[in-house]
Design goal:
280 residues; 2 domains; globular; two-stranded parallel sheet; Rossmann fold; alkaloid metabolism; seven-stranded parallel β-sheet; UDP-galactose 4-epimerase, domain 1; 13 helices; 11 strands; alpha/beta
Length: 280
């Protein structure tokens, strides 16, 4: 049995690969620019290039039986993901685990359609729907503003159960490897609800220098995203998510990480202290 991990250089995929490596399970990391570093086996794969769809199956010594699905960064992610899922099924893959998000409902846009599709085609599946990730890129309007001492958002006083990529990966690991398929979705949330004001304070304490929350409007945040090179469509969507947070869309907790993995999720303070050297 080999597990194919797409999104090979992403946060959750990297954490998942480390878990598979630690357990000495067979896996293959797929990305557009395969790395030769580290112990894992890498293979070229591009969601938008059908000629790469066979490469993971040709590269794997053992049959690929499960796939971790991380969507490509395109507006219509469903079309290429459906094409590869269908291809993988023809190659004998039995189980798929999708990285989605709390803000993307089943049947909704992008990978919400993938979620719905997996439920209808008779495969073993799981869907992880995390809230916002802990990490600099989640809080900084890119690293430029973070280095200037700001976390910026249009969330106002809205609160978020920020979650560590390692906790998302730990749940995905079980969905991929547990003998009995889960065949359900899990909302993956951290252990506490935090506003961006509180996030800024925790980071400030961890790194030993002032950090402030820069409050922006929807339009100001969208413009800032675009100024850092983000396509306008994505900038509009991401700024809209902040606007929903301000209305309370993410103010919810649950026990999925504990239920699936047997351990509680990491707190933001733990994460900040562990990563303080990366943020200074």
């Amino acid at each position: 049995m080999t597990i194919l991990v797409t999104g090979g250089k992403g946060k959750t995929s990297s954490e998942l690969s480390a878990l598979l490596e630690a357990r000495k399970l067979s896996y293959l990391v797929a990305s557009r620019s395969p790395s030769k570093d580290g112990p894992s086996q890498h293979v070229r794969f591009d969601w938008l290039d059908h000629s790469t769809y066979d490469l993971p199956f040709d590269a794997s010594a053992d049959p690929i039986t499960a796939v971790y699905l991380v969507a490509p960064e395109v507006i219509d992610s469903f079309t290429p993901m459906k094409a590869f899922i269908d291809h993988a099924r023809r190659k004998g893959v039995k189980r798929f685990v999708l990285l989605s998000a709390t803000v993307i409902p089943k049947g909704g846009p992008a990978y919400g359609k993938v979620h719905e599709y997996l439920e209808t085609i008779g495969v073993e599946y799981g869907v992880v729907r995390p809230s916002w990730f802990m990490g600099m890129s989640s809080f900084s309007c890119r690293q430029v503003r973070f280095r200037e001492g700001f976390v910026c958002s249009a969330t106002q006083d809205g609160k978020v159960p920020f979650v560590a990529a390692s906790d998302i990966a730990a749940v995905a690991f079980h969905l991929l490897t547990d003998e009995t398929p889960h065949d359900t979705e899990y909302f993956i949330r951290g252990p506490e609800l935090l506003s961006y004001e509180e996030v800024a304070q925790i980071i400030s304490e961890a790194i030993g220098k002032p950090m402030k929350h820069e409050r922006l409007s929807f339009e100001e945040l969208k413009t800032k995203f675009i100024s850092f090179g983000m396509p306008q469509d994505f900038a509009t969507v991401l700024a809209g998510f902040d606007e929903q947070i301000a209305k309370g869309s993410e103010a919810e907790l649950d026990d999925a990480v504990l239920k699936v993995t047997g351990r509680p999720p990491k707190s933001f303070r733990e994460f900040a202290l562990e990563n303080r050297d990366n943020w200074i």
